[in-house]
Amino acid sequence: MAWKGLLQEFREFLPVTEKTPLLSLHEGNTPLIRLERLSAQLGIELYVKVEGANPTGSFKDRGMVMAVAKAKEEGSHTIICASTGNTSAAAAAYAARAGMRCIVVIPHGKIAMGKLAQAVMYGAEIFAIEGNFDEALKMVRRLSDIAPITLVNSVNPYRIEGQKTAAFEVCQQLGKAPDVLAIPVGNAGNITAYWKGFKEYHERKQTGLPEMRGFEAEGAAAIVRNQVITEPETIATAIRIGNPASWEKAVQAVNESNGKIDDVSDAEILEAYKLLARTEGIFAEPASCASIAGVIKQRKLGEVKEGSTVVAVLTGNGLKDPAIAMEAADIAPMVLPNDERIVFEHIQGAVHQ
Ligand code: F0G
Q1: For the CA atoms of the chain, what is the radius of gyration?
Q2: What residue's CA is closest to ligand 1, atom 19?
Q3: Tryptophan synthase beta chain-like PALP domain location, by residue (predicted)?
Q4: Phi and psi of 150, rounded to 5°?
Q5: Residue 41 C-alpha to ligand 1 middle, in angstroms?
Q6: Would the CB of 83 count as within 6 Å of ligand 1?
Q7: Distance between CA 348 and CA 350 in Å, rounded?
Q8: What CATH number does domain 6-58+157-328 carry, 3.40.50.1100, 3.90.470.10, 3.30.420.40, 3.50.50.60?
Q9: Where are the domains of the chain?
């Protein structure tokens, strides 16, 4: 049977009523892929949940379809969000699909080109402030309090409801919950959503519960350091967040699950980013690779046990941020004249003399 999107596929788990429009871009049902080489190298069963396969290329589609459908059901005409890029892309797409107005506020110069291109194409009204994500979020929260505009950041509980479905899918695909769930942490909505999802699925289907391991970027590791970071900095712009809105809920998820919020450096993120693409053929954006970097770090330290089953969430598609890819890769196209002989000469070893 063809996949119908989250609101229909997981209706019994979601706040979907007869009045909820069954909005869909066929989000969800993303692949869970076993990493053959990295599993062998690390001595674990390592899988990735490829959320970059969603319609706008990130996990945000799961939450946005629910939040926008409920906004529409409640008679709202306009949605608003602050974003490091992916939320704005998803909000703009689902607003277009639902025939609603979409306003996004982003940190100027700190969002990846692919994400901006999406928001532009989907017709959002875009404001780039000379400030960071945390400041943008403060503004849109206030505006949505005083104006008839629906806030669709992950402080909107419908976002969490939609995003929890990824945990259901992991359990279905693996046949049970993994031992460890590794996930990047920015505003901390997604780790909150996964934990809620694993608990609800376990209650109904006895699939077990994973240890939740969340990974912040070192330069934006507010939860790890237990202090707000006023000027967060990281190459992983998606998680360049210094005051996560769901801070307490993330701490609660790791406490309840015997997990941990940890950090990884930009160098570790970039290393994992390249490794994943070159050894497994999977291109995820830098922030996503914080999960893989974290697993590698904790495996070395013995914090992830040999033989354990680990699912790392790859939150966004690598194509979102081509500029970082071109910078990070040490491969560049070699420009040659349009001459077969010269081209063949350069492809050393391919042609036997
Ligand atoms: N990975 C990617 C690719 C993201 O875009 C985000 C968040 C995260 C991880 C972290 O998820 O915030 O739920 O902890 N992006 C938001 C945005 C902030 O505006 O697109 P989180």
Answers
A1: 21
A2: 83
A3: 24-316
A4: -90, 125
A5: 28
A6: yes
A7: 6
A8: 3.40.50.1100
A9: 6-58+157-328, 59-151
